Amino acid sequence: xxxxxxxxxxxxxxxxxxxxxxxxxxxxxxxxxxxxxxxxxxxxxxxxxxxxxxxxxxxxxxxxxxxxxxxxxxxxxxxxxxxxxxxxxxxxxxxxxxxxxxxxxxxxxxxxxxxxxxxxxxxxxxxxxxxxxxxxxxxxxxxxxxxxxxxxxxx
Amino acid sequence: xxxxxxxxxxxxxxxxxxxxxxxxxxxxxxxxxxxxxxxxxxxxxxxxxxxxxxxxxxxxxxxxxxxxxxxxxxxxxxxxxxxxxxxxxxxxxxxxxxxxxxxxxxxxxxxxxxxxxxxxxxxxxxxxxxxxxxxxxxxxxxxxxxxxxxxxxxxxxxxxxxxxxxxxxxxxxxxxxxxxxxxxxxxxxxxxxxxxxxxxxxxxxxxxxxxxxxxxxxxxxxxxxxxxxxxxxxxxxxxxxxxxxxxxxxxxxxxxxxxxxxxxxxxxxxxxxxxxxxxxxxxxxxxxxxxxxxxxxxxxxxxxxxxxxxxxxxxxxxxxxxxxxxxxxxxxxxxxxxxxxxxxxxxxxxxxxxxxxxxxxxxxxxxxxxxxxxxxxxxxxxxxxxxxxxxxxxxxxxxxxxxxxxxxxxxxxxxxxxxxxxxxxxxxxxxxxxxxxxxxxxxxxxxxxxxxxxxxxxxxxxxxxxxxxxxxxxxxxxxxxxxxxxxxxxxxxxxxxxxxxxxxxxxxxxxxxxxxxxxxxxxxxxxxxxxxxxxxxxxxxxxxxxxxxxxxxxxxxxxxxxxxxxxxxxxxxxxxxxxxxxxxxxxxxxxxxxxxxxxxxxxxxxxxxxxxxxxxxxxxxxxxxxxxxxxxxxxxxxxxxxxxxxxxxxxxxxxxxxxxxxxxxxxxxxxxxxxxxxxxxxxxxxxxxxxxxxxxxxxxxxxxxxxxxx
Lengths: 155, 710
What we know:
The structure holds 2 protein chains of 2 kinds.
Chain A: E1 2-5, E2 8-11, H1 20-27, E3 46-49, E4 52-55, E5 68-70, H2 83-90, H3 100-113, H4 119-126, H5 136-147
Parallel strand pairs in A: 1-5
Antiparallel strand pairs in A: 1-2, 3-4, 3-5
Helix pairs in contact in A: 2-5, 3-5
Chain B: H1 2-16, H2 29-35, E1 39-45, H3 48-58, E2 73-79, E3 85-89, H4 98-110, E4 117-121, H5 138-165, E5 173-175, E6 178-180, E7 187-189, H6 190-194, E8 198-202, H7 227-231, E9 247-251, E10 260-265, H8 267-270, E11 276-280, E12 283-288, H9 291-300, E13 302-306, H10 316-322, H11 336-342, E14 345-353, E15 365-371, E16 374-379, H12 384-395, E17 402-405, H13 420-432, E18 436-439, H14 442-448, E19 455-463, E20 469-477, E21 493-498, H15 514-531, H16 536-542, H17 547-560, E22 570-579, E23 582-592, E24 599-609, H18 616-635, E25 641-642, E26 645-646, E27 664-670, H19 688-700, E28 706-707
Parallel strand pairs in B: 1-8, 3-4, 9-18, 14-28, 16-17, 20-21, 24-27
Antiparallel strand pairs in B: 1-2, 2-3, 5-6, 6-7, 9-12, 10-13, 11-12, 14-19, 15-16, 15-18, 19-20, 22-23, 23-24, 25-26
């Protein structure tokens, strides 16, 4: 079957029931997308498929054939970080970083649909993503910095 | 008091260390010299005591001479002939940002930019032995050692530059990674000074380090040194490592804890293309070229287990008390009888704390590879050398034949001290003859790792009507002894820890039992304040002599606006404490729904003081993160179990704090440049739960004496 990841079309030979997560990580070497729970409850495996955030750990790859898939690796442009990635660094919005890919993918999808989200909209959109280190307030701040709505830069 | 503390120190280690070796000579001079190619190396012996002994043994060695390399190397700094500064330490980066803060300490002493420092961490072939990354020790212990090494390196390099220019060392300074002479007419780079040298020195025990008030790079909010790799998804965690010909592993798990294997049939799995089944006693694992095939093969194995009946969490607290050992060791201070006789009011209450899971977002994982009898394992652990010992024991091979490498890891919180996953991956790799990656599933994480201990705490106390606490008797059953000791000024104390039989496997956790002991103590203090009709802050201050504890309590109360009028339906609570060299106070405001009784944490102010602040940005992040993590244990985390099975061991059943659970949080950091830096990864977690419980009482009149607060 065909798969279209980060603007690149590739042929893969795989059981269509295989979760997209393992195709990305093991076959395409796109390891930025992480396993966290295997039941769509933590968001570490978030990718964007045709403009919607999906949990790749429960998405059979057969369901996304020929759709546009974007992973964390697809955000950078010519080695340049997106404003959202820059904002994560600026707000120190991570500790161990394991949730960061999923957070950035989910937040970039929000900003693409809603460039100036309110705090409540950010929380609602991101509530399915877990940061066990507890950097939630900083992640909200990072999204606000990227959206240009931050009142002040986080310490 | 000293005796009391000494006794308790032993108990503390019970959960923290799993008894590491007393001595370890495996990173010895031979290995060091193999790793050292040239340039200049400064070695930190495991203890300054040993360094001191060495100095005496060697006599006054000349400033430039090569010294005997000590047997026990604690850390070393290497400046190679191209001027690259490498720091070798066995510590692990798990999100606490010591890769940044330790580099800051070295950069500070060497007067080179932060980006010029490279940290080589947690690789048993390259870095010296380290007990492990836990107990908030990296900042108070490793950082000063690295500073000494860096300071000694600086002085050595200055002496070499001075010699080259034929001037006195005092006429040479190092400014921004360049050596300059008195009028800055001449300069040399680090590389120019280190070129052609092969010089090894042990740091003198009395080398002076820069006091915190003169820090230039430490003490600044430097961003995470490799932050870019994390926001781009490029950082390679253990789970991301791939080796040539690597297989994916999966383990067949017992039906319950302590279950014995009765029978198994692996034929169907063995018939699958590419699948290898590895059996060794009750261990059954599979490996396959793709993850999905390994999953299918594991499911295709038919197994029958027999599990004994085991206690469940419905009768947990009775069980812990029934199975408690006599308390060990500690002697009372003063007399409880006298203290109670002097009291106007007395109070006895019991508090309970549930088992909770660490739930690090990156589960346990390992990639194992055997080459010519040598085993290499990449794994996320807080104890690389401890895991190496476990592997040596499991495979009956010497530690020299094992290399454990820890990539910067997806957190641990005390949950990654053991090597089960590494052993399993290595067993599969040996059985298949190929490298094997094993990533535990989230369910395996919950079922086969270990938990923060549950416990029962009983307190009996006496108080005078003026608020003076006269008697304090405290018994902790099973949850641990950390922070049982009080910083309050209680004249009569009897504080005891009792081991018990834990129905579940239990171990270290961020802050250990400091959370449980602070919860019980600080809720009880609130109850006493209520009993004598005093304001909770005023009541605590009346019993505090320690200026630092007073400092954090007053800071939190003041930023919170403790005395201000509160809104309808709201409640306020406060708590304070001390552990591992740092002080914390938390104030919380909650709202309680009048109809449903559901509690919402609206606002938290937490003050924290850990001596001189190394990096305010990351400290703030740590403290804030600890408050958020504490919300889980305070409000909903609670392991349910029965007959050796975990009943809520997955994210859909075990609730963790999410975006919508997080209140407004204000962190007040007190920077004490006049005091040595303590670690900060743990203590900030202890204050929230009692503050919230006390706030719920303030709102509803109902005392909650269990964690989670239900």
